[in-house]
Amino acid sequence: MVRMIYHTPELHKLVESVARVCYQSYHKASPDSHTMVRSIMKKGHLSVSSVGNMVFSITFDGGSVLPEEWIELAGTLMTFKEINNYVRWTISPRKGENHDRILISMNMLSLMDILSEFHNYDSDRTLLDLIVEEVKKVPYLHWFLDSSVEVPPSDNPYIKFPSLGRPVILSQDYTALKELGLSDYELDIHATVTVDFLTDRASGLQSWRHADMVGGCELSQRYVDRSSSGFRPMVEIYEYPEGLKDYAEREGLTMEEAKEHYDAVIQTLHNHNMETLELYSDVMDTLAELGVSKKRAKEIARSILPNAIITRIIQCRPLRQWKHFFDLRATVHAQPEIREDAQSIMAAFKKAGVVLD
Predict the structure, then answer these.
(1) What CATH number does the domain containing 35 carry?
(2) Are residues 152 and 23 in the same domain?
(3) pLDDT tens digit string along 327-349?
């Protein structure tokens, strides 16, 4: 028997908010504006549905798994995993019972990929059909699979606005699965946490490097005009490096003179960033005047944007993958900016009651 024990509430609204972060179209949000997701998916852009979570429990007649049943199930699970790596599963004993608990989790993109490609594999389809039957019981999940399904209008509970150093996290999946009695190990594998944060473009690229089982999106520099964007300060004037004294001695300068040299370099860097934004706007406007479409003008002009420009990112990862990210990026060995990001996300996790130990 297959039973869906959890799904992210109002998943269609979370997917809409992810898409609107990409296109910066919050002003178009309305109770029924989630339909814009369908227009995106019709074009083949399914990545917006890579957030959120669905968790399924499998039990067997008689309470235990027969060898032939396990061989068949294992083959199906491996097919799922081959089609979409985001599929996770665990096998662990339930307290007071003699049979194994098999849990499977995935996002909507995983399921749609599996449904699209499963016919190419010589695997038993029973498990997939049972999962789909469970999904069909929830209208706003079934909505992703069947264009004839409609869901009633509702406000979007997910669109919020983070600031640098203050991420917004969605920890409902973790909290609900913990209340259902999942073990710490099962929570690591099956609970997801979605993080909405601002960072600089360079640090954002580093965060995407930890890409095993991560879904989400980033503000589009292709569609969004960045003329009025801000920059993340890599360093500040009047914050001096420890090695400045050595520089002063080597050059025969006083510390005040050395500080002036340092401040001048930082100011030059800041001025260059601002001039680059002005050039970006000029190039974009001039190309448009010359007959280039506004969309294409943005695509061309964005090539000169500095890595220090601020971007907005939404990432959804299983808890274990977030722990891996923190292990590598919340330490003194990481670049200061992404270390600051990782530590602020960790603090938000702890505030929400997500256990990281």
Answers:
(1) 3.30.1360.170
(2) yes
(3) 999 999 999 999 999 999 999 99
